[in-house]
From TrEMBL:
Keywords from the UniProt entry: Signal
GO cellular component, one term: membrane
Entry protein name: Neur_chan_LBD domain-containing protein
Entry annotated with the keyword Signal: yes
Organism, scientific name: Panagrellus redivivus (Microworm)
Pfam families referenced in this protein's UniProt entry, alphabetically: Neur_chan_LBD
Signal sequence bounds: 1-25
UniProt domain Neurotransmitter-gated ion-channel ligand-binding: residue ranges: 71-231
A GO molecular-function annotation: extracellular ligand-gated monoatomic ion channel activity
Length: 253
């Protein structure tokens, strides 16, 4: 009798626990469905720039030097911002975040930053964009980029080299309205940039640099973000090409 009672109690506890789980599963709602509702509601009201600003990160997939004046940069550009109007945390979402694919950045009214130099390749700014939206309205919007960056000679290296730059400006909002900067993990996480540290043609990638500057237009101050690739030539190769022939010429003379 005692064993039967224990089994009955265990069975009852299991049934109660299962019913609680099932009720919660039935009560929770799809994150994507909740997000779509928030987007429809937000379109009816005026939208302001994110109060916590915009963070950018860049993950390089490939670097190719097509000419001494052009570097092809292939990778992923991620914009991170928080939009309080997309907060669906109190609506019993089933998951931690929603993942959606969008045709362009206008879906989220993503703060626009303008590429001031370089050229988009293969449709560039019209490629597919993926977005991860957390319950509190934090958005990670990632797009694949393929851009040709202009390069110029680098006079700071003794054996010659190149500096290739991409420059973005936030012209939509001044710093007083919305601050734009590089995310901390861009400079602190070498693993995210390991594929970029490779040889490019006859050059070696010396280092990558992410810079933030302030620019003034009229009476307003805006953000400028720069991604810089410093290329240097091999010292050994330069010695063989230039110094060894001169030594041989002197020896023969």
């Amino acid at each position: 009798m005692t064993q039967r009672r224990q089994r009955s109690r265990l069975l009852l506890a299991f049934v109660i626990f299962s019913s609680i789980i099932l009720n919660f599963a039935e009560d929770c709602r799809s994150n994507n469905a909740l997000l779509k509702e928030k987007l429809r509601q937000r379109n009816r009201v005026s939208h302001e720039p994110p109060s916590e600003g915009l963070l950018l990160s860049l993950k390089i997939q490939d670097l190719r030097l097509s000419s001494p004046s052009t570097l092809l940069i292939d990778g992923f550009l991620t914009k991170r911002f928080q939009d309080a109007s997309l907060d669906y945390s109190r609506d019993r979402p089933c998951d931690e975040y929603a993942v959606i694919r969008i045709a362009n950045a206008s879906t989220f009214d993503t703060p626009k930053i303008s590429l001031m130099n370089g050229e988009w390749l293969s449709g560039g700014d019209k490629t597919q964009i993926n977005a991860v939206v957390y319950q509190n309205g934090t958005v990670f919007e990632t797009e694949r980029i393929a851009i040709s960056a202009p390069c110029s000679p680098n006079s700071t290296t003794p054996f010659g080299g190149l500096v290739c730059r991409l420059i973005w400006h936030n012209l939509a909002f001044s710093q007083n309205e919305m601050f734009v900067t590089w995310a901390e993990d861009v400079s602190e996480n070498p693993a995210a940039l390991e594929k970029a540290l490779q040889s490019v043609a006859d050059y070696k990638v010396s280092h990558l640099e992410f810079k933030h500057n302030s620019i003034q237009k009229f009476d307003r101050v805006f953000d400028e973000l720069t991604f810089e690739v410093v290329l240097s030539k091999s010292k050994t190769k330069e010695l063989l090409l230039f110094y060894v022939p001169q030594i041989m010429f002197v020896a023969i003379a």
